[in-house]
Amino acid sequence: MDGSLAERSPAAAAGYEGDVRLGIFLLAARFPGQDDAAALSRTVEAAVAAERAGFDDVWLAEHHFMSYGVVPSAAVLAGHLLAATSRVHVGTAVSVLSTQHPVALAEQATMLTLLSGGRFRLGVGRGGPWRDLEVFGTGLPRYEHGFAESLDLLLAWLRSDRLAWSGEHFAFREVPVVPRAPVPPPVTVACTSAATEALAAERGLPMLLGMHVGPDEKAAAVARHGDPSLPHVSTHVAQVADTREQAVAALMDGMPRWLGPGLEGYVAVDDRPRPSRDPVAYARRMCDLHPIGSPDDCAESLLATIERTGMRHLILLVEAAAPAPPPWRTSPAWARKSSPRSAPPPDRTPQQPAARIGGT
Description:
By secondary structure, the protein is of the alpha/beta class. Helix content is 40%, strand content 15%. Strands 1-2-3-5-8-9-10-13 form an eight-stranded parallel beta barrel, surrounded by seven helices. Strands 6-7 form a two-stranded antiparallel sheet. It starts with 9 loop residues before the first helix and ends in a 23-residue tail after the last helix. 46% of the residues are buried.
């Protein structure tokens, strides 16, 4: 491809300079034949390679008791990656508030912000009704009813010099906030339901939208949220090859092998039935929704998402086709070719609310 997609667009001819932010999303899944040490080492290597390839940020998932992701603390791994890199921002996608104390997480986030010179980003989410709640003693009520208070306490801690709290789930007398960052880390909220979208909107926070929904559903979520000017984050699966057929074949061959065993780790704390998910069908859906194909195919897909949703911060799950490393890890030119770096500005015309996405 001669030049980036944006360089060949009418907006580029008009002299527009875009502001698209492109990052990678790392699950740290345990691939077949790997142990946990190998999964973690591969994840660290991918983050360092992402900085070399020119990506803007690296986002880390957090899971417990499953091979789907072997990182139990995204904040801990973020600290390691911030020390191993010098330019990229590192974020959590997400730190689960239902299984930890929001003040403890806020303290960690502040420390990482100060030590990294402001390169840390805090993504938070509700999580699910999983057995984590039993193991860590927070219980199902924290998941079902405590997310809003947890988020409010987290935000208050990040923005205060001293703080006392009296709520349904947390209560303590006034204490000093130490350490404190003059500029707190940016906070993003993972949203999979209209209720959580409204919660984020009421607090003026951007959303992180998952890879299980496409651009139309993401556009509807932004419309329901009501503030398209915030730096919402869109998550994607990305697989680059010489042709779309090769990329699809690689993803369909590799993804179900680790996804199937990984999904078995989702066990509800109250033994409620969990909808089964066919890993092959899920991989096929990812091929239909996301940038899977040649560099031109991927750039076109990402640009279409930007134009449809107005979201200009995209993060890519780049190691779904295990175990082969993605091309950008050995050739940064692949990343440059696939990147819609200077996309035209989105249409900010308000959209009509659409049906809710579903989930929690």
